[in-house]
Amino acid sequence: MSEEIEQEIPEVRIAFSQARKSFRKANPKRQVEPDAVSRFQTNASKLVDLFAKFTDMTMIKPPNSGKDCRIKVLHVDVSYLMFENHLLKVMQDTIKEEKE
Question: Could you tell me if 39 and 12 are in contact, meaning their C-beta atoms sit under 8 angstroms apart?
């Protein structure tokens, strides 16, 4: 008997062309394999989902609880700054470790 292996198909939130543009913006001289662009699409999509979850986690009021429970532009901006600061710190720490 063969068992079917279920694979989770990742949801892609950014287009292939947008992923390629991101690589070009990072370094226009760098060549990127198409499979790497596809993997970048998948991982960038996961980051988008993490950012949405993080934004929701920073909300004080629970959903559907009345006044001030809706995510507003201010909430997105504040959670983005927090998210970005954490990512930048990890990037800086990684670069420091690699140089040592």
Answer: no
pLDDT digits (tens, 9 = 90+) for 45-82: 999 999 999 999 999 999 999 888 999 999 999 999 99
85 residue type, one letter: N
Encode pLDDT of 10-29 as tens digits: 688 899 999 999 999 999 99
Cβ atoms of 19 and 40 within 8 Å: the answer is yes
Are 23 and 37 spatial neighbours (Cβ–Cβ below 8 Å)?
yes
Tokens of 28: 């226009």
> Following CA atoms 7, 87, 48, 65 in sequence, which dihedral angle do they give, to the nearest 10 degrees?
110
Instruction: Look up residue 87 and give its amino acid.
Output: L
What tokens does 4 get? 């079917």
36 within 8 A of 6, measured Cβ to Cβ: no
Which amino acid appears at position 46 of this protein? K
Query: Model's pTM, two decimal places?
Result: 0.77
